[in-house]
Amino acid sequence: GDSVTQMEGPVTLSEEAFLTINCTYTATGYPSLFWYVQYPGEGLQLLLKATKADDKGSNKGFEATYRKETTSFHLEKGSVQVSDSAVYFCALARGNTPLVFGKGTRLSVIA
Amino acid sequence: DTAVSQTPKYLVTQMGNDKSIKCEQNLGHDTMYWYKQDSKKFLKIMFSYNNKELIINETVPNRFSPKSPDKAHLNLHINSLELGDSAVYFCASSQETNGKAFFGQGTRLTVV
Prior knowledge:
The complex is a heterodimer of chains A (111) and B (112).
Chain A: E1 3-6, E2 11-14, E3 19-21, E4 23-26, E5 32-38, E6 44-50, E7 56-59, E8 62-65, E9 75-77, E10 86-93, E11 100-101, E12 105-110
Parallel strand pairs in A: 2-12
Antiparallel strand pairs in A: 1-4, 3-9, 5-6, 5-10, 7-8, 8-9, 10-11, 10-12
Chain B: E1 4-7, E2 10-13, E3 19-25, E4 31-37, E5 43-50, E6 54-56, E7 64-67, E8 75-78, E9 87-94, E10 102-103, E11 107-111
Parallel strand pairs in B: 2-11
Antiparallel strand pairs in B: 1-3, 3-8, 4-5, 4-9, 5-6, 7-8, 9-10, 9-11
């Protein structure tokens, strides 16, 4: 079945550091790919998405590019802030199936 | 206005009890979901439901049942609660099953 694998955390960075959170997927066909973010005590929010190969999703300084050849959708940000501290989930959806999530990566940014 | 709201936010109950969690969305979406998030933050789909079809994750015990009185509501009923049911339960909705989902704030269920 479909699955998403993302790097295990926690990830701890200093403010203004560069962030990469790796995500790879397994799916038949051509899924849409997503990054969701969960701030402490809140539900998930969509951060960005990409629906086809080579698409780049971007939002709030975060970016991820849909790489079909490597089945990856790595999340990057050039300069993280303390307010970016959260749990980040990579996810895919295909056809009529609900979102399938990775296990989440906790990011802590320290001043 | 909150797009997807669930109540209660916290629920503490004893083993063996029956409880319900309510979910309402005011987005006019056709599809609603219930997800379970365990203590390690892993999110797992439990149900997806639209006005045509209920899809049940086969790993979900039949003590869990979704009830949809109308398109805007999808409540979760849990019978004979067990310690292992302790988790955060998230309701979500989307207009298309292969698209952006909006999540509620979650219900933290603790079974003692």
